[in-house]
Each structure stands twice: as structure tokens, then as C-alpha cells.
Design a protein that fits this description.
Blueprint: E1 3-7, E2 11-13, E3 18-25, E4 34-40, E5 47-53, E6 59-61, E7 69-74, E8 79-84, E9 93-100, E10 114-115, E11 119-124
Parallel strand pairs: 2-11
Antiparallel strand pairs: 1-3, 3-8, 4-5, 4-9, 5-6, 7-8, 9-10, 9-11
């Protein structure tokens, strides 16, 4: 049972930046193959944002997000990051990380088994 803990969320003005962290623990022999970031805004469905294969470092971004988002990892710390620049009010959401055995196209939430509890990003106008 892998444990995931997100951190780094904050309330920031539009145009600011955040870097979210997803720390993994409680797995025995190997890291998860795929770690993805999702967001859930009020009144909207949970949607995938970006994903990374932790073994190769290959990254994937959903069509709904633009170049303001960057996913990265530090394997020595068992941590995956999501950096967001030039924040917009529509970026306001709870941000979650989750793991799967692969990174499926479209990042459907149902394909991911283990989830963190989320970290809040609130962007004011």
C-alpha cells in the first residue's frame, strides 16, 4: 500500500507561481511506474493534468493544460513535483497525485489506484 502526501498548495494572486510536491512511501521493492497529477475544481469533475514515468523520466501533459505546467521528479527523495507558473483564477482547485502501473492516454482518474489527500491552490484575480 503506497502512501502519497501532497504539499505546497497556497493562496496566491494571479500571475504567481507554486510548486506542489507528492511524496511517496510504504512500498517495499520499487517505485510506482506512473505518478500523475490531477485537479478538482468546485463544480467540475476531477481531471488529469500531467504524468511522469518514474523509471525513465518521460513526461506527459493533458491537452487541457498549457506550457505553464511542468512535472518533474527527484527519485532520491521519492518525490514528484508539479510547478505552475503565471497562475490564473481557473487554476483554483484541489490538486491530487496518484499512482498507476502505466500512464494511460487522457489520464482517466479511474485508472489510478492510490491517491493522496490533496493540496489546495487558490488563485485570486
Amino acid at each position: 500500500q503506497v502512501q502519497l502526501v501532497e504539499s505546497g498548495g497556497a493562496s496566491v494572486p494571479a500571475g504567481g507561481s507554486v510548486r506542489l510536491s507528492c511524496a511517496a512511501s510504504d512500498y517495499t521493492y520499487s517505485s510506482p511506474y506512473c505518478v500523475a497529477w490531477f485537479r478538482h475544481a468546485p463544480g467540475k469533475e476531477r481531471e488529469g493534468v500531467a504524468a511522469i514515468y518514474t523509471i525513465t523520466g518521460s513526461t506527459f501533459y493533458e491537452d487541457s493544460v498549457d506550457g505553464r505546467f511542468t512535472i518533474s521528479q527527484d527519485n532520491a527523495k521519492n518525490t514528484v513535483y508539479l510547478q505552475i507558473h503565471s497562475l490564473e483564477p481557473d487554476d483554483t482547485a484541489m490538486y491530487y497525485c496518484a499512482t498507476s502501473d502505466w500512464c494511460p492516454p487522457g489520464l482517466p482518474p479511474g485508472a489510478f489506484l492510490y491517491w493522496g489527500q490533496g493540496t489546495q491552490v487558490a488563485v485570486s484575480s
